[in-house]
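G.,

No rush on this.
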Amino acid sequence: MRLLRRTLVAVLSLAAVLTAAPPAGAATNPYTPTEVCGSGYRIISSLPAKTDGGSKWGGVYLLYKSGGYNCVVTIKWSFIGVATDTFAGLNRDSEDSSQNIHDRGNFKYYAVVRGYAPQCISYAGWVGDKTGDAGTTAVAVSGWGWCD
């Protein structure tokens, strides 16, 4: 049973990375999700941040570390090296938003949050084309899951 679970986790992790891979020919961000989150974290889910028109401007990754710790990182695939409105959020309680944590700012490469989350979570991220709220935004929002 343990071997089956490990194999399933490995397959799902690979699928998550492949679904949020940058578009071919895109500039390369020098940072990776595991590098940004730190030692012990592994990717368990990911989503591409898309504009209303379907353009993919970044990847939003959920990483897990033993002990109930999560990390959410939004890696920019567009506007790399340019400070634009970028967001990463870890939602820890669907009814009490004060329990949710986020990182938002005008960042050049990524936004990241880390936090303890022993219950069900959701995650989100975005990449904007300008600083602040003006302009177009590419967004990714997960459903609730990853419950212990």
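When you get to it, here's the other one too:
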Amino acid sequence: MQVKSISYHRVINLGNYESKRLELFAEVQEGEDPEAAISSLAELVERKARESFELIFDIKELKRERRELSQEVDRLKAEKDKLTGVEADPDDIPFDQMSQAQLDEVNKNF
């Protein structure tokens, strides 16, 4: 049997029922060792998948940290207002001031 083309794919589970798939195809040249070509292709896919995986989870971690910091800022503002005697305006609803992109981000995280 002569191997003419190979492929290798990797699926990364992102959580929330999401996944990312990376697949590469290669043609095996005449005289090229198919085993070496498969190993090389697999190594490339695994390396790129790992890079993507790390970036995706770094982004998720940064978003989580941003949410926590935003909550901390809100808590500190409320504490400051309490200490200075300023009462919160009941008509000042924070989500009324969000842009559509911010609303989309909130919905995406739930």
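The first strand starts at residue 5 and ends at 15. The longest helix spans residues 34-84.

Enjoy the weekend,
O.
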